[in-house]
Amino acid sequence: MRTKNPDVVILDIDMPGLNGLQAAEEALLLKPELPIVLLTMHKVKDAFMKALEIGVMGYVLKENAVVDIIHAIQSVSAGNAYISPEMSTFLLRQKHKAPTGAEEMLATLTPSEFRIIHLVAAYKTSKEIAEELSISEKTVSNHRMNITRKLSLSGKNSLPLRDRGNGRGQNNLLSLRWLCNNSRVCL
Fold it and tell me: pTM of the predicted model, to two decimals?
């Protein structure tokens, strides 16, 4: 980015290492007017809202990327925003109230967050999770923060950071295991 001067940047949200949202945020710090289009396969309100918050101009679902990407590039190049029609429909159909039940809260988690939560419930440390999923511990930490926010958990050990030596977080971990084992959403 520092040596190139692109007209439009297209990023996949699920890139390895630095995800698309993080890359977009860094790019916009260097060049705030840069039109960025994010590609994603997930219809997730939180990721969309984060993209808006950081200044992304286009949001395209991969299910229709072949058609939508051309429209998105034309739109953001002209200084306009673009949202895949399917994403717009999804967002408009969302209830404006925050989820309150366990299943509703779990339904807000992305597939990556589900993998993390299942591994946490299986007593894995962040380091073990990172190694098993071939991602960095920082990425695991980011997922854990997103999970705690989406599940309305608070406190340092709300999503157990299990220390093999002291067993802290066991009550939360048992609750998490129960939640995953007794929810159709987690299956």
Answer: 0.51
